[in-house]
Amino acid sequence: MTILVTGAAGFIGSNFVLNWLGSQDEDVVSLDNLTYAGNVDNLSSLSKDNRHFFIKGDIGDSKLILSTLKKYNPTAIINFAAESHVDRSISAPDTFIETNIFGTYRLLRSTLSYWEVLTEKQKKEFRFLHISTDEVYGDLDTKAPPFTEENRYIPNSPYSASKAASDHLVRAWNQTYKLPTITTNCSNNYGSFQFPEKLIPLCIINAINNKPLPLYGDGKQIRDWLHVDDHCDAIKVVLKSGAIGETYNIGGNIEKTNIQVVHSICEFLDNLKPRLDKISYAQQISFVKDRLGHDRRYAIDASKIKKELGWQPKETFESGIEKTIKWYLEHDEWVKNVISGDYKKWVDNYYP
User: Fold this and answer.
1) Catalytic pick among 137, 159, 190, 343
2) Domain ranges of the chain
3) pLDDT tens per residue, range 228-245
4) In whole angstroms, what separates CA 151 from the centre of its chain?
5) Which fold would CATH assign to domain 2-350?
6) 351 pLDDT exceeds 70?
7) Would you call 135 a catalytic residue per the annotation?
8) Among 47, 106, 234, 294, whose CB has the most other CB atoms within 10 angstroms?
9) For residues 119 and 125, what is the distance between their CA atoms, to the nearest angstrom?
């Protein structure tokens, strides 16, 4: 068995590749375009692993995708490739439309061409697993029940709208062409290798560098937090046992406000790496102007995947956030390279 993982040098993609090769023997072909958040250094521990093959490329490059599929003959594609930062989608939506919509479309078209000439046995075994987000469901009232797979799509940002469109394309390729697709919609991930523009790594890194810990508005936006290791385990379960054409919501069953999350980070850092003046990192919290169209609450009902596939998260928020903070404290060189942009210099030299 060989799988193709797109967006494999990004945060969730790289964690999935490492998780996969750490738990089983099947080969992995990793494909990533190595844009600003794609860091091939995330996969450096696999440099001598003969089960791993890395390709720099775009999911929208149909010629490259088809040649890769024909060369490696994967039995599954796990599509993580996406532009994913809401703030960037507000200021520069074009890239999100190109990657998340047109890129997914071209990947589906290439995959269908590959799948249609497989043997009947190979066709039945093949899976196209599309990784999406809970943000496609839109804003959730504070008293409303969590999102289920039956919730309407009501995206409110260019990012979530582009992901919603990609989800619809995946569904259409299943319904129209019978391509064996499955979609997962996850809640907010956190963990190792996350690019420090997202809340948790940003606050960890800013805290220890004596910088403000920025919180939008009043900081009371609610998110459901999912440790990336739990997410990777869920994806493996869906790939193995998920029903073709279905959607599975994946969540951590942990609803917290952003300000609660940041206070938790400060409390752990106060113990793990206290400031020299012994003052709590919480004094660095700074409230900034809220972003445009900021959804107030997301929450995932993950009962379907638990009932049908037997998956549920293992990490509590306390265990997950402690593990995450320790990872960033122990990987200072990775952090420095990302913040300085040195990893991009390496990529430009290695992949001109």
Assistant:
1) 159
2) 2-350
3) 999 999 999 999 999 999
4) 21
5) Rossmann fold (3.40.50)
6) no
7) yes
8) 234
9) 10
